[in-house]
Structure formats: structure tokens, C-alpha cells
């Protein structure tokens, strides 16, 4: 599984490599700069043949050091290179200073200080269609908002370069923007832009076309605003070993969800060998969500799936199902009666359930100690008494809130994400989901474009909805109900709560991608066979 790193983990990996004598910091910086140049030429082959222009903005730390390497290497390739430094050359860290000196033998360094309008104003004639701007101001060392950009700073001008031609004040041709490691201003751990509070007016951000990071992606590339700031993200290997020990314990690590194993069915196994899922439906006129969840549970391979509905809803359901089964569960007592059947291996409650019914049915469902997905109304029903719910939850439960439901159960954690990110590392969706899982004592899957999954012991994973894992079509009514059903079906088949949540999140995205544009929730279960076939299930 691909690890997504924090700034501290990246530093620990680098330090371990340097102290072991395997490589020097200077060599790593050289490889980082070379990696950026390679990625630029690979992304824009048209720049390979000519003599383009580079404007390299260097900052006061090692990110700036990478910038000086890039400047030197592009100069060696025949590019016209212009270098700017924000900071005092005498205070550069040693490796950055060395590369500053090396560049100084080749060309000048123009100082930038935030001295008001015009402090960083390059003549329009300086710019050409083949100009590439390198943002080597701040990388993983950013700890506070970048004041230098306020109102009159570079960012305003950078963003102007990026406006459509007819909207630009001057006659600047479009400039390609490359972020070194991270677009400056972005928090490496949370993907949030560090900003003073209240935010300064009229500040534009650096939005990159290409971000070249080193060794592995950082959480900030995929969380929150990260994807919209980074553009294409390329990972340049800089010869570092994985060094898992430097990453810390499992409570500090975050992996990306990957294709699940174990979805095939043995030739000799009968249907009960694959578990029996029970999905609890809402009342008359509100059964669609549960039917979607149930069909997803069946498609993902649960041997049997039963819908439990109040009497008044049974006719409605019966007319719309075939392979699914139907039982009556009018009340909590009736549900408890159904759950006396030990062959029921997993439950799903919430989609379309109704708040009153949820308050009645969730306690006996949790009492039964089966793999249990709680979603939608099963979460909202406890808005006024989250502790009551937490007291009943057990390790085989998965809560699948969207941001709104999450805020109802964990208002203080949701508030942490809303507070302005004034210093780094800022609170991230991973942090709050981990804390929520610890508090609830079960797995929490926080839905969103970046879906985060955490277990009470801190183990975490995420599906970054970017690049090959983007599935914008999932923003459609009922898609969340299908996810609940997938996780329930997988638990019915014997997956642990955490593994079921990860596999469910992966399959959900994969099914959406297999169907593509025009997707509605009903299509998701129907796209699963194709996905499962590709997995060799
Ligand atoms: N050996 C290494 O450590 C390597 C580091 N690499 C590069 O080094 C970067 C990390 O370097 P650093 O840790 O020096 O950090 P940065 O270069 O990201 O920035 C840190 C510097 O900026 C200052 N600073 C932080 N926030 C500021 C703000 N808002 N306004 C003004 N100054 C601010 C800090 O006090 C520090 O001087 C990585 O992102 C990567 O680009 C790569 O060269 C690979 C090797
Ligand atoms: K940068």
C-alpha cells in the first residue's frame, strides 16, 4: 500500500538516510533538483528542444536550495534562467547555501523583499510563451502563513499570469507554474492553506500546473485544498529506502486504499459460507435507500441478504426485489427476535431509516454484536446524545458519516477543521477521523472527495479522490447508501471492520469509474461484476 507522509515522517526518513552515511543532504538536494527538471521535461516535451526561460523563486530554506539546483541544471541545458531569493543568503541552511554559491558562479540572484507594490515586478518583455516559473519558496518546512504574499506580493502577480489571456491586465503570455515539493503556502500535513486570521484581503494563491515531490506523496497533496493547488503531482524518487521504522507506529501512518484481496468464492462453498447480511429499511415510501444498500451487499458477494422492514412497507419492497429476501421488523423487539438467528453475520442501519425508528432499532442491533454499519439516520438520531451511542458501539462497527453527520456526532472535531489554519501542521481530516474513531471505539469512515478511514487504534487509510482515483460522478443521491451496503456485505463475508471499510471505499470508487459519466446510484451495484472480474474474484 502506498504510504502518504507527513512532513515529520519525510524529515525522519531523510535524517535516517543521512545519519546512516548512505547519502548526504547535499546529494539528496541534487537528486531532488534533477528530479524536478526531469519531470518538467517529461510533462512538457516541447520544452526539451529549445532554450526556454526559467524564473526560479527561491525561499529561505532547503526548498530554496532545490531551486538553486534547478536553476543550475536548467542553465547547463541552455535555458535562460532568472533567480530570485526571498530571504538572506547568509542565513540559508548549509546545503542550500552551497547551492546558492554554485549558482552565483553562473548568474545573479535578485532579492525579493515585501516592500510594497512593484517590489517584484518583472517587465512584460521578460516573459515568453516558453517561460516556466518554479516555486521553490517553501516546502515541508512551512509553519506559518506566507505574509510575503499579502496583497502586493508575488502571488497576485503569479495568479495574474494564469488568468485567461483576455482577462489579464498586462500582455503576459501564459506561464507554466511548477511547485517544488508543495505549492508554497500549503500545509504538508493537512492540505490546507495556512492563512492569518482574519485572512488578509486580496491575496491570491500559487496554483501549480505541476508539483514535483520527493520519495512519496505527502498528505497535503491529496487532502482538503491540496488537489486544487497542486495540479499534476509527480513523485521523483531520490534514492531513499522506505525506512518503515522512521514512519513511527501504525497510529501515525496513513496508507492509500488499494484493490482488496479475498473476494473470490471457493468452488465448493455454499451460500451461507459467504455470510448473511441484514439491511434494515425505513417505512412506507422510504425504502429505496435500504434497497440500494441491500443490492450492493448482495453484489459484493454476501451469500444472502435480507431486508427488514415495518409491515406497512413490505408490499412496496416486495414488488421491487427478487434475489433479496424480506422479513418484518416493526420495532426494536422484533429486530432483536430476528437477530436470534446466528447465521446473520452483518447488519446495516441508517439509509432511509427515519430518526424515530433509528432510536428504537439501533440499540438492539448493537446489542447483537455483529459486524454493523451505521449510516445516515442511525447517526443523526444520536445528535443530542452521542455519548449514548458511543457507549453501545463495539469493535465490529463502522460509522460512515458524511461531513454533516460527522459534525452532529463530533461537533468539536468538525469545529477544528473549520478554524482558520494559522500555523502548521494544521488539523486535517485524518487527525479528526482518528480522534473520532478513538472516541467512538470503532471504525469511522468519513466520506468526501478524500475519504478517510480510521480505527480506534489509530490505523488509518484514505482514498484520495484525485488522478486515477477521482470519481466525481459519485456526487449523486444514494451513492452513500451503496457504500454502506458494500461495507456491510464485506463484513458479512468475514472482512474485519477496518478492512471492509477500506475495501468498500475502493470498490465504490472503482465501480463509479467503471460506469463513468451519467452514473446514478442504481448503477453502482451493477458495475461491480466487471470490477470483481478484473480483480480475478
Ligand atoms: N535534506 C533535506 O532535508 C532535503 C530537503 N529537501 C527540500 O527541503 C524542503 C524542506 O526544507 P526546510 O525544512 O528547510 O523547509 P522550507 O524550505 O520549506 O522552509 C523553511 C524555512 O522557511 C521559514 N519559514 C517557514 N514558514 C515561513 C513563512 N510563512 N514565512 C517566512 N519564512 C517561513 C523557516 O523558518 C525556514 O527557514 C523540502 O520541502 C524539499 O523541497 C529536498 O532537497 C530533499 C532533501
Ligand atoms: K514550493
From TrEMBL:
Cofactor(s) in the UniProt record? K(+); Mg(2+)
What's a Pfam family this protein contains? Carb_kinase
| Keyword entries, A-Z | ATP-binding, Isomerase, Kinase, Lyase, Metal-binding, Multifunctional enzyme, NAD, NADP, Nucleotide-binding, Potassium, Transferase
**What processes does the entry annotate via GO biological process terms?**
metabolite repair; nicotinamide nucleotide metabolic process
Q: Does the keyword ATP-binding apply?
A: yes
Q: Does the keyword Membrane apply?
A: no
Occurrences of domain YjeF C-terminal (ranges): 254-535
> Gene3D superfamilies, from UniProt?
3.40.1190.20, YjeF N-terminal domain
PROSITE patterns in UniProt: YJEF_C_3, YJEF_N
Where does this protein hold (6S)-NADPHX?
Answer: 62-66, 139-145, 181, 289, 352, 402, 481
What are the YjeF N-terminal domain coordinates in residue numbering? 10-246
Q: How is the cofactor bound?
A: Binds 1 potassium ion per subunit.
- Which InterPro entries is this protein grouped with? CARKD (IPR000631), Nnr (IPR030677), Ribokinase-like (IPR029056), YjeF_N_dom (IPR004443), YjeF_N_dom_sf (IPR036652)
Residue positions binding K(+): 63, 135, 184
The family line of this record is: In the N-terminal section; belongs to the NnrE/AIBP family.
What name goes with this protein? Answer: Bifunctional NAD(P)H-hydrate repair enzyme
